[in-house]
Amino acid sequence: MAATAIAMTACGGGSDNANANSYSSDKPFQVGTVSYDANLPPEPTLPTDTQVCATLYAQPNTIGSNQVPIVSRPDGSLPPEADPSTSGAGVATTTSNPDQARIQAALNACGASVDAEVGARIQAADAAATAAQTLANAQVTLRQYDYAKQAYTTTQMAQNIAGATGEELAKPTYRASKFAVRLVVSQGADGSNGFISGPLTLPSGVTLWIDKGVTLYASRDVMTYLAGTSTYCGNTAVSATKAGSSSNCLALINGNNLVNSAVMGDGRIDSRAYSEIVTSNKLYPLMKVDMTCSNTYASYAIGAQATNGTSCDNGGTVVDTKSSARNMTWWDLAYLGNMVQNGTTGAGSQSNFRMMVFNYAKNLTLYRITLNNSANFHVVPSGVDGLTVWGVKVQTPTLAAFANPAGNGNPLYTGATFTEDNVKNTDAFDPGSASKATQVALVTSGSNTVTTPVSGGTSTIASTTTSSSTGKISFDGYLKNFVFVFNHVSTGDDDIALKGSNNPTPGSTYVGPLGNSLFAIDGNRDVRSDRKWGIIIAHNHIYWGHGISIGSETNSGVTNVQVYDNSFEGSEEGLRIKSDYARGGEVSNITYTNICIKNAQNALLFTPYYSTKALPTITQNGVTYTKYLDPNFHDITLNNVRIMGTSNAKLQGFAANTGGSGNAQLPLTMTLNNVVADNASAVTMSAMSDANLTIKGVNLPIFGSTSDNVTVNGQVTQAVDPSKVVDCSNAFVDFPAIGQSNLFGSTWASQ
What we know:
By secondary structure, the chain is mainly beta. The protein is 9% helix and 31% strand. It contains 5 helices and 37 strands. The strands form 6 sheets. It has a 23-stranded parallel sheet that branches.
């Protein structure tokens, strides 16, 4: 198996040097010490000074007749005078969003320059590749379930057109001489080191470079995130019957149809989801912590103020314009929608903006940047060939979330202070495929503006992009050549989750336990020559959060993933595959090697019973059928996994006739080699069912069970020396936060 190149067995190998492929025969592998890995492509680099299109300096915020510096405190927060709110009235846009226009203007100018220099070259290369692929397009066989016939059918379909590969377009000839917009600290005496901005559009070929010491703060003004005049953001409901959705809001950084774009630097981006939401339109409905609302969407739409006592339509109770309670924060909305309203109705959700959303790209890089306190998911890339996340730090919440002028820890509306358990849906990275293939021109500039009438009423929203005039580029829609390495991640939800929800090949959506010939995510698809595998998750440090996950959407399949040399400390989960029969599909050939897990709530969690979501339906020939999307996890391999401290494990396959669907048993098929706990009695197997397990050198409580349909090949034994499996002595490090924003404390470096 491919994993043998990076792992040796408990007694046979390991390495004490930096190269993941070089081993001595007498020492176990040291997790967390690798600095060079021949399996990976070259490390990204920051731009040089000569490659910068524009340098923008932090500057004070103009508030009335005063110039107020935008200066981060040591804990990462902004003092309240940096962008004050106005009680009972709308804030001034110039105060709440002072830097968006100038940052976007610099990005646009750089995007136009890049396109003028290399746009035609990129388009010509892509056109040639597209023509060749169209001429020689091979057919693929797709299998789908015909509910009327109660049988599988096969269909011959053309493969998606990918155009020029990301590997080809990474060559210097397709990169402009100047391509970066750099944000730097003020050169003046004011000391400003922060920018406050609403949504930005990242153009194709452009790098947003946030320099060391600089923080890009998200505006608190809800109006700047509106995605349309009738799409409402900042709520837990968008009508009396419809729940909220993050798609109602623009992301802070948006990027579509890109080649060679990046966000990098040693600065940070802070979405400030802990801060009170404000509005530049006093008629726009906001919820308050006493559950009242300031207006209704129905009244806002006609430029009116609803009378007190009117039922709210944004998730609150009733309109109360006299309420002195503060407005909710984004995390208030997330907790209310997910933990309270969803628990009551099953339909609650929050309309919160995400930090970064990217759709369709060839070569997209995040490098060395720090991401903090997103209101929803941090990074959502879909349909990227050449996604690199290297040396990135995600910490949510940070100490900034506890800063409050009143000194009361800035609690949730419930009175609870922020923890890893109540900043909901703050996934760090959710990469996946797009819903379809496309041929589209590259985006070279963007504009996101909101004009609020002086007299109130609905705001005029303009969210536009300019595309290259050189022609269209082909994207096959798949996630390919994904490298996620040397990152530090701590958040309130998934640290990284591969999403197998979309398959961009027409007709290839997974139906039934056997699936079809294509997977939404396949690590063996079009692997580049500069790396060993197509999906690599390695050399990362995971803290708070749900660990390294696949799912919960696996309905279109995930296969051939390499996960190695990762550490987990204090995480809720370590290694996890999760799904259910509303979103299930095939997950196979997943290999985990050289893993250290310390004080995790659930070190291993593999379950097809993640939720009880309503089953989807499909209509064929005018008849609507229920779709049972059965989770099928097989050929999962764990090599050299060490569990330290108290923890739990859950190993479950899918039982026959689950939910009355008539499905056959789909057992979890897993091999565990040298998976050991330092204290075997401190690990509880909280659930184990419908599993075929092959074990060697394992001291976890894994036993066969006829009643639970568990078959075990091999014998568990407590006579295992954990120190022979993998060396965790250097696996756990303090979170490398900026300034005083480290929630995890600090210690003297090991001597």
